Amino acid sequence: xxxxxxxxxxxxxxxxxxxxxxxxxxxxxxxxxxxxxxxxxxxxxxxxxxxxxxxxxxxxxxxxxxxxxxxxxxxxxxxxxxxxxxxxxxxxxxxxxxxxxxxxxxxxxxxxxxxxxxxxxxxxxxxxxxxxxxxxxxxxxxxxxxxxxxxxxxxxxxxxxxxxxxxxxxxxxxxxxxxxxxxxxxxxxxxxxxxxxxxxxxxxxxxxxxxx
Length: 212
Ligand code: GAR
Known about the structure:
The chain has 212 residues and is an alpha/beta fold.
């Protein structure tokens, strides 16, 4: 059974998609053992509690400097000892020491087709504002492994979504969530839990599900 810790900062709709997929059997061999947030007011924490999952707050604001936070975050992850850390709208940069301790065991969901509209300062609604500003006709979502860079680790899966002429950042964000994020993240977790994802020479390879 894959032990998953989910890190969140806000609404937690991706967390909810994962919990629902575990409940209805679209994700097998996995359980969410804890939810960690930098934001005590995150609705995601309520979603975790409703599911009887420990909800932990760990914020850089509660530490004198970033390196003390980084140390505390890494120690907490080592104590929780997950097989996989999922960043589901977690808007804090994961410390390099955590990345080193969980090599190829941290995944992030980003609401664009990486390498478009990603990197430092490009998160949440801002991603969709930039996509609309640029006038792209297709956007989407990406799940990737996390390395020391920002949105730079090996891509695991992507799903494209159409941009409509009358889209606002909000309508586009909603469509990307519904059509891509809430589908892709549960699929990737299921693939990892069932040993279908491999990293070779910095690239991700996926074994297809056996056809019945
Ligand atoms: C999601 O769209 C996620 O892809 C994005 O934040 C949102 C969180 O929503 N993450 C990033 O932009 C990371 N760079 P949620 O809390 O409802 O899942």
